[in-house]
């Protein structure tokens, strides 16, 4: 939902992460295999080769986020063959992957930081280079504990807010 021109996301479970309701994904780079030791390490791969995707997230046709997605090569190739990832429209990479893997997506680890937006990403999210933006690094894993996706996202703070609501335990 939107608040003062921002897309504000309410996340309570993995299904919420998979949906990204009310937004559209725009694929900027089709799935390709490339060497990336850092992403491969985060995925727990023996090889440096990963499947990589680049996409932009839009709310009411306004770009507010850019994401680099990294997958194990076998999952990336299966996703490409499935044609379940739209070029533009609703959906997420992890949502499309969930339909292709034998185990369910059990959870995700997320790190949120503020960083200067890289110059190559700034115009893609309608923002100025080197200005502070919200960066999330999310690693999704299945029920066996195997990482299946690493997503590095940059969000324009003029159009996106991350809100967390915490409650006291009742028991």
Describe the structure.
- With 171 residues, this protein is of the alpha+beta class.
- Helices cover 16% and strands 44% of the residues.
- It is built from four helices and ten strands, in the order E-E-H-E-H-E-E-H-E-H-E-E-E-E.
- The strands form two sheets. A seven-stranded antiparallel β-sheet has the order 6-3-4-5-9-8-7. A three-stranded mixed β-sheet has the order 1-2-10, with no helix packed on it.
- The relative contact order is 0.20.
Low-confidence stretches: none
How would a crystallographer describe the biggest sheet? 7 strands, antiparallel
What order do the SSEs take from the amino end to the carboxyl end, as H and E? EEHEHEEHEHEEEE
Structure class: alpha+beta
Helix run count = 4
- Shape by Cα distribution: globular
Percent of residues in beta strands:
35-45%
Cα radius of gyration in angstroms = 16 Å
Terminal-residue CA separation: 31 Å
Task: Report the helical percentage.
Answer: 10-25%
Tell me how many strands there are: 10
Report strand order across the widest sheet: 6-3-4-5-9-8-7
* Mean of residue pLDDT values: 88
